[in-house]
Amino acid sequence: MKMSFSLDLLLRDNIKRLVPYSSARDEFKGEASVLLDANENAFGSPYSKNYNRYPDPLQRRIKEKLYRIKGVPSENIFLGNGSDEAIDILFRAFCEPGRDNVILVPPTYGMYEVSANINNVLYKKVNLTHDYQLDLDGIAEAIDTYTKLIFICSPNNPTGNSIRRQDIETILVNFDGIVVIDEAYINFSKQPSFTKDLEEFPNLVILQTLSKAWGLAALRLGMAFAGKEIITVFNKIKPPYNINQATQDVVLEALEGVDIVNEWIKEVVEEREKLSVSLQMLSQVAHVTPSDANFILVKLEEPRELYNFLVSNGIIVRDRSKVELCEGCLRLTVGTPKENRMLLENIRAFYAVV
After folding, report:
1. pLDDT for the residue numbered 2
2. Which of 20, 38, 64, 123 is packed most tightly, with the most Cβ within 10 A?
């Protein structure tokens, strides 16, 4: 186990000195009959349900439910406005603009690069290998004194494969900065989540979301799991009421649906395998990347023309044919059985007339 990790050495000086905003709901916790502390509208809301009171700034009830589902204590959970909020906070907490840098391993989720640009932080790209795994030697060479974050998406977007666990552990053990593992698609994978390893790796931050398997993309609720010290930093930086009450209410109700979500996951995985097999049978398909996610990356002939054909027939997929290491590829989300049949029928129809 590495012993050189120091959160204090990684944090920006202004974040160390930061005194977070203290909201009315931070200063008073509990129940009361008369609330006259937060300058709210005491008469209610012009709606069937009252939303005139500020929400719990730390979303305690949701974290309690997540603890029962995921086994991660509340003190190790941060909830954000999508995973994107957690990504942005990581840059603002640990990266001095114009000085520090982060490492990205493309092809990968594009928001890491966008957040780096927004925060004026240099990003170094170390491409995945041709089988979409980490280039450990390349990453080791790219790390310098000012490297603060390494982002690893597993299962990876847009390729769909899981990154080898042993390789991720190698980086966790040998890197003094923060290793961010984005597990947005972990529910569809046979690989275990790194959430069970938080105590072993103090430099580990795990990102997950309710947008995929849980079917709550419109609510924009993301999760970060990390050691208590790192979560304290997240809560110090975030806006005071970053998760609104309407979202909290819906999420609390949705988290009761574990059984139906597990059924959906099972069906998506079954449909993913059927779709992969059917695509591999087409002579125009060069390669179907084995997927641990709810999508498939497919290399095929005339990808742009096929994409346009599908759009003209009301079927929208993602064209990744211009992305490095994904040349000639479309990314296909696994839909319902009916949607998958329509997709295959249209792909076959396109190649029949080309």
Report:
1. 52
2. 123
